[in-house]
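Researcher: We're teaching a course module on how sequence relates to structure. For the next exercise, students receive a sequence and then see the predicted structure as C-alpha cells, so they can try to spot secondary structure elements on their own. Here is the exercise chain.
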Amino acid sequence: MGYALTPATRETVLRAQKNEITEYFIYKKLAKSTKNQHNREVLEKIAQEELAHSRIWQTYTEKKVRPSKLKIWHYFLIAKIFGLTFGVKLMEKGEEMAQVKYDLLSADIPEAKRIEAEENEHEKALLNMINEDKLNYVGSMVLGLNDALVELTGALAGLTFALQQANLVAIAGLVTGVAASFSMAASEYLSTKSEESEQSPLKAAFYTGVAYISTVTLLILPYLVLGNIYFSLGLTLLIAVLIIFFFNFYISVAKDLDFKKRFLEMAGLSLGVAALSFGVGLALRAIWGIEA
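Model: And here is the predicted structure for the students to work with:
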C-alpha cells in the first residue's frame, strides 16, 4: 500500500528509519558483547523496539535502508571504552539534538506520536535499568577527584611561589598527593563501612584512591617535564579545568545531571583555592624574605 508523502516528509521519515535501524544494530552488538545477563536483556529489549520503529517507518517509505556502519562502530567503541551507560546515553542525546519532528509527522503518520512516546519514556526507563558497577561508586570518584583538585591545585600554587624550583615543587606535591590519596581511600573505606550500605567498602576506597592518585599524577606532570615553574603552574591549572570539564560531562551524560552548574561549581572551587594559596605562598616569601 502506497502513502502520499511530500518530498520533505519522506526525507524526514527516511532519516528516522536509518537512525532506528542503525541503533538496532548498535544495541544488538552491545548486547552480544555484554557478560551481565540483566544488561544483555535490557539491551535486547531496546534493540527490538528500535527494529519495530524502523519497520513502521519502512511501511511509509516502502524502501529498505542500510545502517550507518561508521556510527555502529563509533558508539560501540565509546561504550566499551568509557562504559555502557555513558555510550548509549551519549548516543540517545545525540539523537535528541537531531530529533525527528514528530508533531509535524503525526498529521500524515498516526504512529509517529506513539513512537515519540516510546523513545522518550519507555527506552529511557530501560536505559536507567542498566546496572553498571562503576556508576554505583560515582560518589566515591567525585570525592577523590574533587579533593585532589582542590587540595593539590592549591598546594602546587602555594609551593610554586614558596619554593621557586620545579623539581622541588613536583617532589613536595607528589609526597602530599600520595599521602592524601591513601588517607582519602582509608576514610572512604571507614565511612562506607559505618553506613552499612550495599556498596563494598573496599570498592569505594579503591575508586576514591584511584581517582585521587590519577588526578595528582596529571596535575604534577607539567612540573616534571617543563623548566619554567610559572608556565608549569599555568598548565597545571589548565589540566585541572580540563579534568573537571571531562569528568562532569561524563557524569552529566551517564547520570542525567546538569553539566553547566556542576562544572562551574567545581571549577570555581578549585581555581579559587589555587588563587588563595598562590597569595599565601607570595606572602610567606615576603614575610621570611626568601629570594628566588
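Model: If you want an answer key for the exercise: The chain is about 80% helix and 0% strand. The first helix runs from residue 7 to 33.
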